[in-house]
Structures are given as structure tokens and as C-alpha cells.
Amino acid sequence: MSTASKRLSPQEYLALERQAETRSEYFGGEMFAMSVKSFQHNIIKNNLAREAGNQLETGPYRVLTSDMRVKISSTGLYTYPDIVIVCSEPEFEDGYSDTLLNPLVVVEVHSDSTEKYDRGAKFGNYQRIPSLREYVLVSQDQPLIERYARQTDGSWNLVTFDDRYGTFAFATISAQIPMIEIYSGVRPSKMTGTDSGPA
């Protein structure tokens, strides 16, 4: 639901967002309040970010979590991915250094209520980021990770990881993480098997 009664410019949104105690996405002149994330969501996000960060700490990569705002310049969407990995020098929209323009990898942890948006409209926006090479969807309800990697022809190749005792591997960076570590500490509803935002 929109939290604004009138159309806001990106500059007006950023001015409000930088003073707000809660986070909102922005698209098409409107702000959209972000929902509170579940325990499972946060544990999975933190597990994955920590393990990836530990493996990448000696390289040129930086692993950032959901406080890092990302702008998709070609569509005007401002959003907060669950995890962002950036390589080399980060590029920002302005001198505040709080709106990243050039993520290499984006990770979203989804639930039943957010899956449609993360898989559809949000992924469509992310594909418009020239620097993005990998989009990872992580289910919070079962041991399931879907890795989309951009190919040289612009298409996206999907590889699915659904064995809770297997290993998840990023496509564009040298990090491999046991699935059991990613889901450590949570008991989602389907963990026994191997099996809405702006439009």
C-alpha cells in the first residue's frame, strides 16, 4: 500500500527516507512501506551473508545486507535487497553513499507472500542493472535456492539447489556454502525434505 498521498520526486523520497525510522521502497512517484521480516527470514539472510562474507574477505568483494538501498536507474525503483555483493569500487547515486548503483549479485529471501514479487516484477527490474550478473532466490520455507546467472547473450541460466545436505555455489564469485549452514537455526515448514511490493 502506498504511504504517500501525492506523487513524490526521487529527491523528495530520498529526503524522507533518510529521516525515517522504517524503510520504504519507491517506484513511480510512490513510497511503499516494507513489511517486518520473520525470524526465519532474518536467520537465513544472516547465515548466508556471514558465510559468504567469510569466504570473500580477502578479495575485492563486499557483502552487504538489507540496510543497503539499491537504485535501478533505468526503471526508477529504489529497493532494499536482502543481500548485495559488490565488486571493486562501489558506485553511488550521490554523496551520501547510501544508494548503490552497481551490485554484482543480489539475493532475496522469499516467503509465500513475497515470492511472486521477488520472482516477477522485482527480478524484471533487477535485470535492468548493467552490472548485475547473478540473482539468487532463497526460500525461507524449504531448502530451496534458485540461482539465475546472466549469460553473454543476455539470457539468464537457472540452476536449482534443493538438497538440504548439498552445497550452494554462487556462479560469479568463488563462494560455496553448505545448505545446512544457510538454513541452520530455523525449522521452516518443509525442511524435512530435499525438495507484494510495487508492480
What tags apply to this protein structure?
single chain, alpha+beta, 199 residues, 29% strand, three-stranded mixed beta sheet, 5 helices
Structure description:
It is a single chain. The chain is α+β, with helices and mostly antiparallel strands and 199 residues long. Helices cover 21% and strands 29% of the residues. The protein contains five helices and 13 strands. The strands form four sheets. Strands 3-6-8-9-10-11 form a six-stranded mixed beta sheet. A three-stranded mixed beta sheet has the order 5-4-7, with no helix packed on it. It has a two-stranded antiparallel sheet with strand order 1-2.
Summarize the model shown.
The chain is α+β, with helices and mostly antiparallel strands and 199 residues long. Helix content is 21%, strand content 29%.
Q: Order of strands across the biggest sheet?
A: 3-6-8-9-10-11
The beta-strand count equals: 13
- Alpha carbon gyration radius: 17 Å
Main sheet properties: 6 strands, mixed
Helix share, percent: 10-25%
Shape: globular
> What structural class do you assign from the helix and strand content?
alpha+beta
**Helical segment count:** 5
In N-to-C order, the SSE pattern is: HEEHEEEEEEHHEEEEEH
Approximately how much beta-strand content do the residues carry? 25-35%
Uncertain regions spanning at least 5 consecutive residues? 192-196
Oligomer: single chain
Mean pLDDT across all amino acids: 91
Measured distance between first and last alpha carbons: 11 Å
